[in-house]
């Protein structure tokens, strides 16, 4: 009878032990689950992206800046971006600081794409300096080319009304809310209409590079404004 | 503008070329750079240690000492350097601020010396970066408290003209202020002690007669104890009433914790007075006596440590809650397990799960009374697991509570949450302020710039110099950039107030029907025609009745902006005859479309000579908000 007693006892014990350990394991699992959500180590991978630009002589040859100007530009560039490249987030941040009243991030996005000529997601010092060389020291033709490139979001050689509307909205976003006169919903659209009326000569709904350059060269205001920033550096 | 990105200003200006083909208005002229200086190195000699930096770096912040012409006072001609007789270690942080745009607070430095350095160099501490700002604020507050504590000891002089009530309240709150208050303090403390001891001794058996069982002293010397109790309660009641009378805000006093404790302490006595003869409720009456023990809490007025303890427990509510919750979970689990484990054994004390709760609690807190003991093997195994886990579960939240207590004790009851909230608000306010700063800077310069132009035309040069505040080249360029954007979109930046008002106006008004085309046409051509004689232009026009809800002074302030900005459009548009025609054409076009700007201008002639744009204007000013489309087609 004792054995029977011990048998039932043992079976009971076993059963209860299994139950308890299962519940403890469940708790452990839940503990583990909450643990892994907090693991920050995965995000701490050191950004090993570092970029060193080409030599000063090469850049001097490729752009229209003098040695001193390149030095000044690089010092400012490196100050803001110690790793040597600008990614889009940093770019947006920097650009937004100049327009505190509005939201400059959309326009900065388009600008970033215009500067990032090799479309690798980051703007290195070479890209930066090439872009600036065109904008500050290029011929009017080159500048207009650059502007067309900026507006042509999908780089297919045509500016459609939708692309222009996006750009226009981005520009108006930079103004922010507190403007006089008050910004209305259809203001960008109307501006786009005006633009297309002026630029689209054959009225086919898109503006090609030739139409664009042609029209801009005939417009005195635009021509004059192209020379506005030549003394920037 | 955060001058940390000052280096990118040329880039932003170059990128503005992207707006040019889209713009329909001509762009403003770029600010002339006076001389194309090569960037030069400046040597700053701070108490012998030489720092060198580019001149451009220092020019980023023109309203500080190093960025403005103030540093010329420190220029040493012989050595061609700027000499400052200040702490070189602290100067490092200052110079780093110019270099990186972020001000850091070195933790090992004394806060007041740091403040002095910042004040000397003209840097406001609010721009300390987020990484160091909390530390800075903490140290500053500690310092301020220390100073305040020192001052409070000297501040015992009675303020004149304090009413009797105020004096009493002050005496109650700070017993050290007068001898009477001190006496009162000690007397109440004494009576609290007496009352508590009485309550305790009441229950001690002072048995005398052998045939009876021990009688508690309370029943033996009923009268004596009753007298003692009465005396104590009288004192407490008087004290409570006096505090109630003296309190500046009676309602708030009655809701405070201490007064509730006072009330609860004396209430049983009065209830007892009322209900002595009723036999049924005497049982309840006895229970009420328990509340007399609350008198001991009255000591917390006398002891700072007790208050801190109470405060700690309150602030550690979440840890205590966690402790309780985990304990409850463990108790239920182990009680269930023990119950089923012991079910088989005979004459087991574990009759039900709730009965097992008691065993589990006693085991987990390692008390181990031994009144309930498991007999089966399974029960013993689980019992040991239970006691081991009990130790762990209880040990976990305790250090948190302990550290909380020590922190609060050292910081002397600063509420953590209150501080975090204030800091959050302050941080948001700082960010808003810096953003607003750059916007208002631009609007200010716009107004000043316009006044400049107007003054140029009127030929008063002295006031022009008055207005030429030192806006750096950088700021000029930034403003020019914003100006180009305005021209591109044909909208202007205005400040928040103005925007709100104009929003209200459009909400209130429908489209105007007061022969707008005529007056606008007249307005525009009128100004075009009389451009050379701007000085004498005076086109007063009727008030708009709907603008009466605005305060005249505030309106004139905005009005200053409004009219000057409309004036601004004129010089550009009227400088070319062809454009004039275009303007008229456009006006004709717009008249048909029904959306016209009626920019009615009243020119303030006398206040022109004052440099401020806030001069009170004749109140005849109205404008309606409709978009003007002046296309250069």
Automatic annotation (TrEMBL), chain A:
Natural source organism: Cynoglossus semilaevis
Keywords: Calcium, Cell membrane, Cytoplasm, Ion channel, Ion transport, Membrane, Metal-binding, Peroxisome, Phosphoprotein, Potassium, Potassium channel, Potassium transport, Repeat, Transmembrane, Transmembrane helix, Transport, Voltage-gated channel
GO molecular function, a single term: potassium channel regulator activity
Protein name (database record): Kv channel-interacting protein 4
GO biological process: regulation of potassium ion transmembrane transport
Start and end residues of each EF-hand domain: 103-138, 139-174, 187-222
Database matches in SUPFAM superfamilies: EF-hand (SSF47473)
Subcellular location: Cell membrane; Cytoplasm; Peroxisome
UniProtKB/TrEMBL annotation, chain B:
Topology class, membrane: Multi-pass membrane protein
GO MF annotations in UniProt: A-type (transient outward) potassium channel activity
Polar residues composition bias: residue spans: 511-530
Key word NAD present: no
Membrane keyword on record: yes
Major place of residence: membrane
BTB domain ranges (all copies): 40-139
Annotated SUPFAM superfamilies: POZ domain, Voltage-gated potassium channels
TM spans (from-to): 180-201, 221-241, 253-275, 320-341, 381-402
Record CDD domains: BTB_POZ_KCND3
Signal peptide (residue range): 1-16
A GO cellular component entry from the record: postsynaptic membrane
Keywords for the protein's UniProt record, in alphabetical order: Ion channel, Ion transport, Membrane, Potassium, Potassium channel, Potassium transport, Signal, Transmembrane, Transmembrane helix, Transport, Voltage-gated channel
GO terms of biological process kind: action potential; potassium ion export across plasma membrane; protein homooligomerization
Entry-linked InterPro entries: BTB/POZ_dom, Ion_trans_dom, K_chnl_volt-dep_Kv, K_chnl_volt-dep_Kv4, K_chnl_volt-dep_Kv4.3, K_chnl_volt-dep_Kv4_C, Shal-type_N, SKP1/BTB/POZ_sf
Subcellular location: Membrane
UniProt family annotation: Belongs to the potassium channel family. D (Shal) (TC 1.A.1.2) subfamily. Kv4.1/KCND1 sub-subfamily.
Subunit comment: Component of heteromultimeric potassium channels. Identified in potassium channel complexes containing KCND1, KCND2, KCND3, KCNIP1, KCNIP2, KCNIP3, KCNIP4, DPP6 and DPP10.
Protein name: A-type voltage-gated potassium channel KCND1
Natural source organism: Cynoglossus semilaevis (Tongue sole)
């Amino acid at each position: 009878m004792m054995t029977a007693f011990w048998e039932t006892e043992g079976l009971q014990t076993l059963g209860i032990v299994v139950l308890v350990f299962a519940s403890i394991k469940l708790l452990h699992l839940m503990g583990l689950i909450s643990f892994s959500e907090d693991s920050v180590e995965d995000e701490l991978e050191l950004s090993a992206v570092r970029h060193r630009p080409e030599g000063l002589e090469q850049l001097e040859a490729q752009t229209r800046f003098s040695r001193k100007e390149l030095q000044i530009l690089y010092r400012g560039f490196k100050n803001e971006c110690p790793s040597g490249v600008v990614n889009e987030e940093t770019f947006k941040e920097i650009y937004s600081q100049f327009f505190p009243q509005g939201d400059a991030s959309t326009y900065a996005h388009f600008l970033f794409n215009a500067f990032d000529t090799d479309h690798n997601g980051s703007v290195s010092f070479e890209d930066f300096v090439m872009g600036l060389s065109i904008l500050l020291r290029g011929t009017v033709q080159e500048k207009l080319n650059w502007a067309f490139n900026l507006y042509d979001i999908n780089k297919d050689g045509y500016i459609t009304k939708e692309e222009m509307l996006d750009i226009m909205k981005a520009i108006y976003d930079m103004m922010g809310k507190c403007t006089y006169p008050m910004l209305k919903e259809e203001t960008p659209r109307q501006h786009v209409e005006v633009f297309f009326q002026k630029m689209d000569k054959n009225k086919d709904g898109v503006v090609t590079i030739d139409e664009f350059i042609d029209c801009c060269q005939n417009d005195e205001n635009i021509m004059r404004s192209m020379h506005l920033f030549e003394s920037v550096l | 503008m955060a001058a940390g990105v000052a280096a990118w200003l040329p880039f932003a200006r170059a990128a503005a070329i992207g707006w040019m083909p889209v713009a329909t208005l001509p762009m403003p002229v770029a600010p002339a750079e006076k001389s194309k200086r090569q960037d030069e190195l400046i040597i700053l000699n701070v108490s012998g240690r030489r720092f060198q930096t580019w001149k451009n770096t220092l020019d980023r912040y023109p309203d500080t000492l190093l960025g403005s012409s103030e540093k010329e006072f420190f220029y040493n001609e012989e050595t061609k350097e700027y000499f400052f007789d200040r702490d070189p270690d602290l100067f490092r942080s200052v110079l780093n601020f110019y270099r990186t745009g972020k001000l850091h607070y070195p933790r090992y430095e004394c806060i007041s010396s740091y403040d002095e350095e910042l004040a000397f160099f003209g840097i406001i501490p609010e721009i300390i970066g987020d990484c160091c700002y909390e530390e800075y604020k903490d140290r500053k507050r500690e310092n301020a408290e220390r100073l305040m504590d020192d001052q409070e000891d000297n501040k015992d002089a009675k303020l004149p003209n304090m009413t009797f009530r105020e004096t009493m309240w002050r005496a109650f709150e700070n017993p050290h202020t007068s001898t009477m208050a001190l006496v009162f303090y000690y007397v109440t403390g004494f009576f609290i002690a007496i009352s508590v001891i009485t309550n305790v001794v009441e229950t001690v058996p002072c048995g005398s007669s052998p045939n009876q069982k021990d009688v508690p002293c309370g029943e033996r010397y009923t009268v004596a104890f009753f007298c003692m109790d009465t005396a104590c309660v009288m004192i407490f009641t008087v004290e409570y009433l006096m505090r109630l009378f003296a309190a500046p805000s009676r309602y708030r006093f009655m809701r405070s914790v201490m007064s509730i404790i006072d009330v609860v302490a004396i209430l049983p006595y009065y209830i007892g007075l009322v209900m002595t003869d009723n036999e049924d409720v005497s049982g309840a009456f006895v229970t009420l006596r328990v509340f007399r023990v609350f008198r001991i809490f009255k000591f917390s007025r006398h002891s700072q440590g007790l208050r801190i303890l109470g405060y700690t427990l309150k602030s550690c509510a979440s840890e205590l809650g966690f402790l309780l919750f985990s304990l409850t979970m463990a108790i239920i689990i182990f009680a269930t397990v023990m119950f089923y484990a012991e079910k088989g054994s005979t004459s087991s004390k574990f009759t039900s799960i709730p009965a097992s709760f008691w065993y589990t609690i006693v085991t987990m807190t390692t008390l181990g009374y031994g009144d309930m003991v498991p007999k089966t093997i399974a029960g013993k195994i689980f019992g040991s697991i239970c006691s081991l886990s009990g130790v762990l579960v209880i040990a976990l939240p305790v250090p948190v509570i302990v550290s909380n207590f020590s922190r609060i004790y050292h910081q002397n009851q600063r509420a953590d949450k209150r501080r975090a909230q204030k800091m959050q608000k302050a941080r948001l306010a700082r960010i808003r302020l810096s953003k607003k700063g750059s916007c208002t800077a631009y609007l200010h310069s716009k107004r000043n710039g316009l006044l400049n132009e107007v003054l140029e035309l009127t030929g008063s040069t002295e006031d022009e110099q008055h207005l030429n505040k030192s806006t750096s080249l950088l700021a000029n360029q930034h403003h020019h950039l914003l100006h180009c954007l305005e021209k591109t979109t044909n909208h202007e930046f205005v400040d928040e107030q103005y925007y709100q008002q104009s929003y209200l106006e459009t909400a209130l008004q429908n489209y105007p029907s007061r022969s707008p085309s005529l007056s606008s046409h007249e307005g525009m051509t009128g100004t075009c025609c009389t451009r050379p004689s701007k000085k004498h232009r005076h086109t007063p026009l009727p008030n708009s009745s709907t603008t009466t809800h605005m305060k005249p002074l505030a309106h004139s302030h905005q009005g200053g902006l409004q009219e000057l900005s409309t004036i601004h459009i004129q010089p550009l548009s009227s400088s070319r005859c062809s454009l004039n025609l275009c303007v008229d054409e456009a006006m004709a076009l717009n008249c048909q479309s029904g959306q016209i700007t009626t920019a009615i201008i009243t020119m303030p002639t006398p206040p022109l000579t004052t440099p401020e744009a806030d001069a009170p204007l004749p109140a005849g000013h109205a404008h309606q908000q409709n978009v003007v489309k002046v296309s250069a087609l």
